[in-house]
Amino acid sequence: MKKIFWIAGESSGDLHSSIVLRELKRRAENFKNYGIGGYKMQAEGFEALFAFQRFAVMGFWEVIKHLPFFWNVERTIRKILKNDKPDLVVLVDYPGMNMRIAKIAYEMGIKVLYYICPQFWAWKHGRVNQLAENTNHVACILPFEKDLLDIHRINSTYVGHPIAEEIEINISKDKFADFFGLDPNKKWITFLPGSRNIEMQKNLPIFLNTIRLMQSDDFQFIISRANTVSKNLFDDMISKSKLKNVFIVDGYNYEMMKYSEVLAVTSGTATLETALVGTPFVIVYSTSPISYYIAKNIIKIRRIGLPNIILEEDVIPELIQKDFSPEILKENLIQIIDSPEKYRMIEDKLSEIGNLLGDKIASQETADIIVRILSE
Known about the structure:
With about 375 residues, this protein is of the alpha/beta class. It folds into two domains: about 1-160 and about 360-375, 3-Layer(aba) Sandwich (Rossmann fold), CATH 3.40.50.2000; about 175-355, 3-Layer(aba) Sandwich (Rossmann fold), CATH 3.40.50.2000. Helices cover about 50% and strands about 15% of the residues. The strands form two sheets. A seven-stranded parallel beta sheet has the order 3-2-1-4-5-6-7, with helices on both faces. It has a six-stranded parallel beta sheet with strand order 10-9-8-11-12-13, with helices on both faces. Strand 2, helix 2 (about 40-45) and strand 3 form a beta-alpha-beta unit.
């Protein structure tokens, strides 16, 4: 039996990896898959060695506060790779830890596949040299990444974006409305505060104050609650706001995106999901002042939203740090709602993203690479 050690430290990586694991199972490949992964990977037979929730940390200052935990995990992984040597290490996004593990594994003579490579084209460009030195293959999910990796003579394959195969609309708008008690005749304005507690704590208060400014009989307000955030903390913040006309949705993310009039979406994977669904939205981002100051001085691109980066245009409004306020967010949402021309322009631009990403199926392409590496 071949052994594959995985590290997927975020909920998006957990989802993307789980579909690759399902594809490997479909092919009846006899692999032992273990390491760091979440509930979706575990549902596919993955053996998780650490509590997944502990890895959901973002921002420079936030990571520094959790360094003792990550140091302990890294020491443990080093021992595992030495004493229970796998045939392949698959590193999924999460570069803060995974770039170090790539070096450790490669120096031990273990084959390394990096799936969803670090965004070296945005910041920390030196990581491209680390990929060249410490990986056997890179599976990239944005078309232009393959060209950049080729320049550095890195073995790589563009596998397609995993989100493209994950989006499914399973119920109608009327059924969705009935399930969550919504009025299908009103305009739904939806807010996605993020999949981590720290994101939710920063973003949800601003979203709630935006709703307070937008109260109208024409609107109903949806707030998405990710299953990776604290339900008690989330519900307490909603309760204390004393707002009416607010509906909490957990699950049915793609239906929520599809049937909303407009959305406010925290920067990250959800922005590309919303873009592929095709509904106009606003991108928001906020972090600690220290983390923002550091990021502002090292990030090399002026756009943070993946849809805008892929389109190479400022199509979706981006409200970052001080610009992410209830007043400015309300203004941007209303501008989209009240301007049919702007609304159609955004829809038309978003429809181009699917064509730019192509028709490759990421789970199948990545499974092919895994099987090929292990057979070499």
